[in-house]
Amino acid sequence: MRHDVEAYVRACELCQKFKASNKKPGGLMRPIVENEPWNTIGIDLTGPLPKTRRGNTYILVVIDYFTKWAELFALANTKAKTIAQIFVDEVLCRFGFPVRVISDNGAQFISNIFVNVCQVLDIKHQRTPLYHPQSNLCERVNRTLKPLLAALAYNDNKSWDVKLPQIAFALRTAPSDSTEQTPAFLMFGRHPRQPLDLCLPSPVSVDQFPTATDLSDYRKRLLADLLPAYVTTRELLDISHQKQATQYNQHHRPLQFEPGDLVWVTALSGIAMGKWRGKKLSPRREGPYRVVERLSSLTYSLIYTITSQQLSPIHINRLERYYSFSSID
């Protein structure tokens, strides 16, 4: 009897749609594993910003998940053709073809030209879930980038694009908390000279051409520095991921759905900073939606059972299982 009463109450559609849930959000963290430089990269747009004298209003951010090396490109427009051209000419032609590129669901990144570039070059294009930008490492760069831009361009906000190379240099020469190395060192095996180095004696300049022995010795020193650094970086990234996952999973619960399951979706228009901020008396959840495909352990493709509207990709922490009276035994 108790089981039947619980099932009946749980199946109340209005309660499911309007009442807050005391359960932890669903979905445990699955960290992105990186083993080598420029294997996985993130790409994102920042803006619009105040229009500069050069006509730029946006910044295209590209970051390597392993070394944390960041590329910043000032843009006058965000057309798909412009994004794809810079991606090919300034990223792929300089650093090679990554195995995976992670972006949000912006029109530029789901356009035919960008998707075709990824398909032709055998690059897996992974899109972050809707309203879940923290899945892209570029968002962390954006948080650091915006205050730096505001400070450097405080007296002249129409010249922020002139400051981008300086900010990029600062990001590349600052040690990362997760790798304990600078992106520049993990890229080149050396630390670039910086303003503080000007206080030290200048290095000895050599005018003669290096011999074959000199080049061989330099190569050996470079490998002796980089290869152990890569091994250490992998270990530190694994430790960092484990800590993040442990902390994140303390506040989340295991949850998964299968194709065909019915679910509620937290009303996306009411989400702000990860919490419900909808209008008074408005429903917290929309649905029911039917699970069409499980895209990954944490993301799903859905279809609205009433209008057949598709929703993809959506993160599992936006989903709750749908209960109906017909499912009561």
From TrEMBL:
Q: Per its UniProt entry, which superkingdom is the organism in?
A: Eukaryota
Q: One biological process GO term for this chain?
A: DNA integration
**What name does this protein carry?**
Integrase catalytic domain-containing protein
Gene Ontology MF annotations = nucleic acid binding
Q: Which Pfam families match?
A: rve (PF00665)
Q: Which InterPro entries match?
A: Integrase_cat-core, Retrovirus_Pol_polyprotein, RNaseH-like_sf, RNaseH_sf
- Lineage, please? Eukaryota, Metazoa, Spiralia, Gnathifera, Rotifera
- Ranges for domain Integrase catalytic: 33-191
Q: Which organism is it from?
A: Rotaria magnacalcarata
